[in-house]
Amino acid sequence: MDIGERPPVEGVEDEASAGQAKVAKASGNSWSPNEEFIKALVEMGVSQNAAEKGLYYTGNVSAEIAAEWVFENIDHPELNDPFQVDHSLSGFTTVRSNTQSSHKMVFVVNDSLKMGVGKVGAQVGHAAIGLYRELEELKRKIAPMLEQWSEDGETKIVVKGESAQALMDIESLALAKGIPTFLVTDAGMTQVTPGSVTILGLFGERSTLDSITGHLKLL
């Protein structure tokens, strides 16, 4: 199966449709990926070739959406082959236009602590569980949001925050917009001092979260 014929990435918004139309007009080697998106994807461990494919087949609209596509197609044997624009494709079949509001979870890591990969993973786990418990308390109010999030593939994004204060500032902005949050304070058993603010978890509509955390780089 051709990469361009893989199943659609879940949770992609209408913004991808605009990017899709724009890129569809490109021909031959005239198409070029957004270099900032390429840099972000490579920093995540995605190869240059896979990053270019991800951006091409998702409309070149964001590193986040391209990363979702790459992980959906991670087992494809041609994923890391040199990229070439495929003229046989009619549109971008891996991009789904979603007419309903898309939701996601975002986890902001306190990058100033320089935690190891395992520590970050554990802290994100704490934040995910804590945030979900918060959502359970609000279940009647946000049940439609949770249902939509589940249908969209339960998107979860991890990004970098500069410091504990930055995480708390983001939390304040989120709460002011009615976004459920969960702030993790570590017990200090390993790597960090007791009481360290490590992770902030947030859940809500993609557009609202992007207005708060969209400027942060992917971890």
TrEMBL record:
GO terms for cellular component: cytosol. Its EC number is 3.1.1.29. It is an enzyme of class 3 (hydrolase). GO terms for molecular function: peptidyl-tRNA hydrolase activity. The keyword Lipid biosynthesis does not apply. Pfam families: PTH2 (PF01981), UBA_7 (PF22562). It catalyses: an N-acyl-L-alpha-aminoacyl-tRNA + H2O = an N-acyl-L-amino acid + a tRNA + H(+). Keywords: Hydrolase. Gene3D superfamilies: Bit1, DNA helicase RuvA subunit, C-terminal domain. Belongs to the PTH2 family. This is peptidyl-tRNA hydrolase. It comes from Paramuricea clavata. The lineage of its organism: Eukaryota, Metazoa, Cnidaria, Anthozoa, Octocorallia.
